[in-house]
From TrEMBL, chain A:
Membrane topology reported for the UniProt record: Multi-pass membrane protein
Gene3D superfamilies, sorted: MetI-like
Name of this chain's protein: Carbohydrate ABC transporter permease
Keyword presence, Lipid metabolism: no
Residue span, ABC transmembrane type-1 domain: 80-270
Record InterPro entries: MetI-like, MetI-like_sf
Transmembrane intervals: 20-40, 79-104, 116-136, 148-165, 202-228, 248-270
Subcellular location: Cell membrane
TrEMBL record, chain B:
Compartment(s): Cell membrane
TM stretches of this protein: 34-62, 90-116, 128-148, 176-201, 226-251, 279-302
Biased composition (Polar residues): 1-10
Organism annotation: Kribbella qitaiheensis
InterPro entries (alphabetical): ABC_transporter_permease, MetI-like, MetI-like_sf
Protein name: Sugar ABC transporter permease
Superkingdom, natural source: Bacteria
Keyword tags: Cell membrane, Membrane, Transmembrane, Transmembrane helix, Transport
Amino acid sequence: MTSKEASDTNSFARKARSGISHTLLIIVAIVFLGPLLYAVSTSLKPADEVFTPAPHLFGSEIRWQNYADAFKFAPFGRYFLNSLFVAVVGTLVVLAASSLSAYAFARLRFWGRDQLFVVFLGTLMVPQEVLIVPMYWLMQSLGWVDSYWALIFPWAFTAFGTFLLRQFFLTVPAELEEAARVDGCGPFGSFFRIMLPLARPALAVLTVFTFISFWGSFLWPLVIINSVEDKGTVPLGLAQFIGQQGTQWNLMMAASILAMLPTVLLVILLQKHLVRGLLVTGLGGR
Amino acid sequence: MATDTTTVTSPRDVPPGKAPAGRRPALRRDGRSAGVFLAPGLAGLALFTLFPTAMALGISLFDWPVFGERSFLGLDNYSHLLHDPVFRRVVLNTALFVVLYVPLNVVVSLGLAVWLGPKIKGRQAFRVLFFIPVMTPMVANVMVWRLLFQPDGLIDSGLQTWFGVHAPNFLGSSSWAMPAIVAMSIWQGFGYNFLVFSAALDQVPQSQLESAQIDGAGALHRFRYVVWPMITPSIFFATTMTLITSFQVFAQPFILTQGGPGVSTQTIVMYVYNQGWQFLNMGLAAAAGWVLFVIIMGLSAIQFIGQKRWVHHDV
């Protein structure tokens, strides 16, 4: 039997198979979502009904009040503002510093460029955990312990953004920029007027990744922030729930869901850019 | 500059340091503006990465309490680590996590990416779905799983309702705690590799797959001889990155088990944190951090050397 005959006679079988495959996928997706659905359902239960037996998704009442109570249990309003401030300022610093150096590495010719770029790449190998002790000492020396600056600056100069944007700048045809240069546009002009506008998808990807890593960062804030009530970020606030006697699971889940919302929205809004961005920036490994 | 457009199609084609002689003036001008472009990134990287990396090595040679007198120890911190049964256990725990987590992550993410091929309806929605836990704060994800693993939590109560048996006390049992941490970590992390693999698979030309099919190649054959060679760079990228990040596991054991029971789920990074900020011994913490760094560098080097055998770079 040739494969052409096979594809004719099997078209019904194939449809059936794709139907089964699709159904299985939906089951996988529901199992995958299970923990999140469970968190939502727990966040809406009264405290004494958190551990109701499995089939009951909801308690005797749906307590939206838990979300308000979570804000009373700990100053989550404050944590959200702190996280937002740190993530926004941090992301802006990352975008500025890495787009500038990426342009230099991709487009300018200068002595020692390739050697310097290797040094940049080399720093990607250094794990945060190696830096955390000297960084703490450095912050002590600068008087930055327990400050917003300590939350923002130490991690705003990683080479990741430079690497990612350089990959993108390399794909921009040189002709575009050369024409501008012939017309008297200097490197700064062509950077701001030509390269940055073109780089929007790559910048969007970098924005998402950076914002999210600042938003979710845990180890460093845990180390550097002493006055959690005042300068704590969202993950630190959440971690306050552990070690509590008689954990208030329903409030904790409400707080966790709230902590997830901004990034979930970001992913849904930017989904197309994310997949495309992975391709154009070479993060897909190509 | 205009000559560039005729001789050079992309800057990648310019061999470094081999610009034609006539370009000297431009080179000098570039050099000056390059300084301005590089200044912020370079200064930040020098102050916040290069200098601290060297500093970490320095600190690791001292008895360096957070407050009080520091004294030079030489390699004593390292020999202390070598003989500390807790540190040995911590390295083993971390290795166990990596050995379980990395292959499972790659298999799950690659399997789902292949399954969700271009013919599946709504694949964009699935992609977003699996990506959500990657992007949500790790601490929030771990909190949710802490509840899930509780006695009378969803897993336990489900087993009770439908099978009438109790689940093991996942987080309180030394044999279940690590698998529980691995399971949680895969749930939260595979979406990234899944997206990477999906993007790579999308680039495999359908025409090649169809012509292979017409030539009578079955699904497994098509995967092995058409798809696989084209996605090996992605597999390499994903396994290397996953390997590196999985050695840095911290938040999952820290919040799920606090490293317990005993020290059975304590990891290297938890050890660094405990030494530095619980026992206030920065010297030992820095030494443990350097050991982690050396492990990561060694494994990445092995990965890069090994890639020549199986990664196809020119397809």
